[in-house]
Protein backbone atom coordinates (compact mmCIF):
# COMPACT_ATOMS: atom_id res chain seq x y z
CA UNK A 1 0.00 0.00 0.00
CA UNK A 2 2.68 2.51 1.01
CA UNK A 3 4.40 1.66 -2.30
CA UNK A 4 1.74 3.77 -4.00
CA UNK A 5 3.01 7.13 -5.08
CA UNK A 6 0.85 10.16 -5.57
CA UNK A 7 2.11 13.16 -7.52
CA UNK A 8 1.15 16.47 -5.92
CA UNK A 9 -1.19 18.28 -8.32
CA UNK A 10 0.33 21.63 -7.27
CA UNK A 11 4.12 21.05 -7.26
CA UNK A 12 4.49 17.58 -8.75
CA UNK A 13 6.36 16.20 -5.72
CA UNK A 14 6.10 12.49 -5.08
CA UNK A 15 4.01 11.71 -2.02
CA UNK A 16 3.02 8.56 -0.22
CA UNK A 17 -0.51 7.83 -1.42
CA UNK A 18 -1.74 7.64 2.18
CA UNK A 19 -0.61 11.19 3.02
CA UNK A 20 -3.27 13.82 3.46
CA UNK A 21 -1.06 16.75 2.41
CA UNK A 22 1.97 17.22 0.15
CA UNK A 23 5.31 16.84 1.99
CA UNK A 24 6.77 19.66 -0.08
CA UNK A 25 4.11 22.33 -0.47
CA UNK A 26 1.35 21.31 1.92
CA UNK A 27 -1.27 21.05 -0.82
CA UNK A 28 -4.15 18.86 0.33
CA UNK A 29 -3.93 15.41 -1.23
CA UNK A 30 -7.39 14.32 -0.27
CA UNK A 31 -10.86 15.31 -1.35
CA UNK A 32 -13.80 14.79 0.96
CA UNK A 33 -16.92 13.68 -0.88
CA UNK A 34 -19.51 16.48 -0.52
CA UNK A 35 -22.30 13.93 -0.63
CA UNK A 36 -21.16 11.14 1.73
CA UNK A 37 -18.09 12.71 3.43
CA UNK A 38 -15.84 9.80 2.35
CA UNK A 39 -12.14 10.75 2.05
CA UNK A 40 -10.82 10.17 -1.50
CA UNK A 41 -7.41 10.76 -3.08
CA UNK A 42 -7.11 14.18 -4.73
CA UNK A 43 -6.65 12.44 -8.09
CA UNK A 44 -9.97 10.59 -7.84
CA UNK A 45 -12.44 11.66 -10.48
CA UNK A 46 -15.34 10.40 -8.45
CA UNK A 47 -16.09 9.16 -4.92
CA UNK A 48 -15.24 5.48 -4.58
CA UNK A 49 -18.03 5.10 -2.03
CA UNK A 50 -21.00 6.76 -3.70
CA UNK A 51 -19.83 7.63 -7.21
CA UNK A 52 -20.23 11.39 -6.71
CA UNK A 53 -18.19 13.11 -9.50
CA UNK A 54 -15.49 15.47 -8.21
CA UNK A 55 -15.49 17.94 -11.08
CA UNK A 56 -16.74 21.46 -10.33
CA UNK A 57 -20.22 20.80 -11.69
CA UNK A 58 -20.51 17.58 -9.67
CA UNK A 59 -19.53 19.43 -6.50
CA UNK A 60 -22.04 22.20 -7.14
CA UNK A 61 -24.76 19.65 -7.91
CA UNK A 62 -23.96 17.67 -4.76
CA UNK A 63 -24.09 20.80 -2.61
CA UNK A 64 -27.33 21.87 -4.29
CA UNK A 65 -28.79 18.40 -3.88
CA UNK A 66 -27.93 18.31 -0.17
CA UNK A 67 -29.34 21.76 0.36
CA UNK A 68 -32.45 20.97 -1.68
CA UNK A 69 -33.08 17.72 0.23
CA UNK A 70 -32.57 19.52 3.52
CA UNK A 71 -34.90 22.32 2.54
CA UNK A 72 -37.49 19.91 1.17
CA UNK A 73 -37.39 17.82 4.35
CA UNK A 74 -37.74 20.93 6.47
CA UNK A 75 -40.66 22.18 4.35
CA UNK A 76 -42.34 18.78 4.45
CA UNK A 77 -41.96 18.65 8.23
CA UNK A 78 -43.38 22.15 8.54
CA UNK A 79 -46.24 21.21 6.22
CA UNK A 80 -47.02 18.15 8.33
CA UNK A 81 -46.92 20.25 11.49
CA UNK A 82 -49.19 22.87 9.90
CA UNK A 83 -51.59 20.16 8.70
CA UNK A 84 -51.72 18.63 12.19
CA UNK A 85 -52.34 22.03 13.79
CA UNK A 86 -54.93 22.80 11.12
CA UNK A 87 -56.68 19.48 11.72
CA UNK A 88 -56.67 20.09 15.47
CA UNK A 89 -58.15 23.58 15.08
CA UNK A 90 -60.66 22.26 12.52
CA UNK A 91 -61.72 19.58 14.97
CA UNK A 92 -62.04 22.10 17.82
CA UNK A 93 -63.97 24.40 15.52
CA UNK A 94 -66.37 21.71 14.34
CA UNK A 95 -66.91 20.67 17.97
CA UNK A 96 -67.65 24.30 18.81
CA UNK A 97 -70.03 24.58 15.85
CA UNK A 98 -71.71 21.33 16.84
CA UNK A 99 -72.18 22.60 20.42
CA UNK A 100 -73.58 25.88 19.07
CA UNK A 101 -75.94 23.99 16.77
CA UNK A 102 -77.01 21.81 19.70
CA UNK A 103 -77.73 24.92 21.79
CA UNK A 104 -79.69 26.43 18.91
CA UNK A 105 -81.76 23.25 18.55
CA UNK A 106 -82.43 23.25 22.31
CA UNK A 107 -83.50 26.90 22.18
CA UNK A 108 -85.81 26.20 19.23
CA UNK A 109 -87.34 23.22 21.02
CA UNK A 110 -87.87 25.36 24.13
CA UNK A 111 -89.47 28.14 22.08
CA UNK A 112 -91.75 25.60 20.39
CA UNK A 113 -92.78 24.17 23.78
CA UNK A 114 -93.43 27.66 25.16
CA UNK A 115 -95.47 28.64 22.10
CA UNK A 116 -97.54 25.44 22.38
CA UNK A 117 -98.13 26.15 26.09
CA UNK A 118 -99.20 29.70 25.24
CA UNK A 119 -101.53 28.42 22.52
CA UNK A 120 -103.06 25.95 24.98
CA UNK A 121 -103.51 28.74 27.55
CA UNK A 122 -105.12 30.93 24.89
CA UNK A 123 -107.42 28.05 23.92
CA UNK A 124 -108.45 27.50 27.57
CA UNK A 125 -109.04 31.25 28.08
CA UNK A 126 -111.09 31.42 24.87
CA UNK A 127 -113.14 28.36 25.92
CA UNK A 128 -113.77 29.89 29.36
CA UNK A 129 -114.75 33.21 27.77
CA UNK A 130 -117.12 31.45 25.38
CA UNK A 131 -118.64 29.50 28.29
CA UNK A 132 -119.02 32.69 30.36
CA UNK A 133 -120.69 34.51 27.44
CA UNK A 134 -122.91 31.47 26.86
CA UNK A 135 -123.82 31.38 30.56
CA UNK A 136 -124.68 35.10 30.54
CA UNK A 137 -126.79 34.66 27.40
CA UNK A 138 -128.59 31.68 28.98
CA UNK A 139 -129.08 33.60 32.25
CA UNK A 140 -130.58 36.55 30.37
CA UNK A 141 -132.75 34.16 28.36
CA UNK A 142 -133.98 32.36 31.50
CA UNK A 143 -134.46 35.63 33.40
CA UNK A 144 -137.19 36.68 31.01
ZN1 LIG B 1 3.05 19.78 -3.44
ZN1 LIG C 1 -19.28 9.94 -1.80
Write structural notes for this entry.
The chain is mainly alpha-helical. The chain has a domain at 1-53. It has one helix at residues 56-143, and strands at residues 5-7, 14-16, 30-32, 39-41. The chain is rod-shaped. The model has no long low-confidence stretch (mean pLDDT 86). One zinc ion is lined by residues 33, 35-36, 38, 47, 49-50, 52.
Please sum up the structure shown:
The chain has 144 residues and is mainly alpha-helical. It has a domain at 1-53. It contains 1 helix and 4 strands, in the order ββββα.
Shape: rod-shaped
**Helix and strand element order:** EEEEH
Q: Give the helix level as a range of percent.
A: 55-70%
Span of the ends, CA to CA:
145 Å
**What class do helices, strands and sheet pairing give?**
mainly alpha
Bound molecules: zinc ion
Strand content: 5-15%
Extract low-pLDDT stretches.
Answer: none
Largest sheet: 2 strands, antiparallel
Spatial extent as radius of gyration = 46 Å
Give the mean pLDDT. 86
Number of strands: 4
* Spatial arrangement of strands, main beta sheet: 1-2
List keywords for this structure.
144 residues; two-stranded antiparallel sheet; 1 helix; 4 strands; binds zinc ion
Amino acid sequence: MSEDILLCPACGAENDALRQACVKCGQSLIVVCPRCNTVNAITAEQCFACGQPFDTLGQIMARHEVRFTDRFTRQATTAIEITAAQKESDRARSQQLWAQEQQRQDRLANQLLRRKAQERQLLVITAIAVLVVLAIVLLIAFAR
